[in-house]
Structures are given as C-alpha cells and as structure tokens.
Amino acid sequence: MTGRTIWAPWRMAYITDDRRPAANDECLFCRIGNKSADDRANLVLGRFDHAFVMLNRYPYSSGHLMVVPRAHVDRPEALAEPEYIALMLTFRLAVSRLQAALSPQGMNTGINLGRAAGAGIADHLHIHLVPRWEGDHNFMPVIADTMVMPQYLNELYDILWPYFKLERTDS
Ligand SMILES: [Zn+2]
To answer: How many domains does the chain have?
Structure first.
C-alpha cells in the first residue's frame, strides 16, 4: 500500500473480530474456495480454473478484491506452472472487470508473503487488488456514510457480480 491512510474505519472490526479463524482452524480460503453453495454470503465474485475472486470483507478501499489460488500454498513458487498461469490470468481478468465495474483512476496490487510482510492469512497465497481514486473519496460516498459494513458489502457485491458472471467457468 502506498500513500496516506485510506478511509476504512471497518478495519477496526478486523482487529476486534472474534470470528477470525484460530491458527489451527481450517483455512478460510480453502473453505470458501471449495464450497460454491453460498458465494454471495462468502463474497465470491467468480470461480475460474485453479483460482477464484472475492471481495475482501475488511477492505482498505471500496472494491478491494482478492484473487486466490485454489491450492493451499504460501508462496507463488509452490504453485505448479499451470496453476500459476491460471492465477495470473484470473488476476488479469479481475483487473479488467474491476475497471469496467467501478472505473477507478488507479489500482494498487500486491502480495504480502509471510506475516512479517503483513499477510493476514499467511498460509494461503492471495493477490490484493485495491481500486484507487484521486483523493480516495469512495465511489459511493453518500451510501457509504450511512451504511453499515454488511449492507455496504452486499451492495458492492451486487454491483460487481454481473461483471464476473459471464466469465465464470463453473456456470
Ligand atoms: Zn488454504
């Protein structure tokens, strides 16, 4: 992440969230990645070969996505080459769909490898994709000011989902 702090008060919820999985619990990304029954509740926008795209429940900015390989690996070099290529193709698609849906003026993207680098879920590789606007006023400022986070995420999900729907390989 670059620049000044982005307005994201709900990140406090992450700090205080009891539902965060304990270290010995099943991996969140594996659980979500292997279950397609409730994609809306899990904020999964699209499932593709070897990878899926989901909204970050604790976003740095409106439309903060994560691109996640199905395989439970903690480093890119641990992926088989077809899995890595598939992940990058999914990443490229997510950039393009996010651009089409929200028209951000820029994006930050990156991977935190290891807890020391700030990874919240260090055991399962994931690529962050954070849309940015000049001054980082949210694209839905009026709604965002009056919505609680679950409503906000549902609203955002419904905006983004159609942009991924046609690309899904499992439907
Ligand atoms: Zn996992």
So the answer is: 1
Q: What are the phi and psi torsion angles at 159 (to 5°)?
A: -70, -40
C-alpha torsion 126→12→153→107, nearest 10 = -50
Q: Structural domain of residue 125, as residue ranges?
A: 27-165
Catalytic site positions: 126
Confirm if 102 and 61 have CB atoms less than 8 A apart: no
Q: How far apart are CA 121 and CA 79, in angstroms?
A: 17
For 87-109, write each residue's pLDDT tens digit.
Answer: 999 999 999 999 999 999 999 99
Q: Extract the residue ranges of the chain whose pLDDT is less than 50.
A: 1-6, 12-19, 21-22, 140-143, 171
Ligand 1 centre to CA of 147 (Å) is 31
CA–centroid distance, 104 to ligand 1, in Å, is: 30
Terminal alpha carbon distance of the chain: 34
The per-residue pLDDT for range 17-40, each reduced to its tens digit, is: 444 544 557 899 999 988 767 899
Give the CATH number for residue 153. 3.30.428.10
Ligand 1 centroid to residue 29 C-alpha, Å: 5
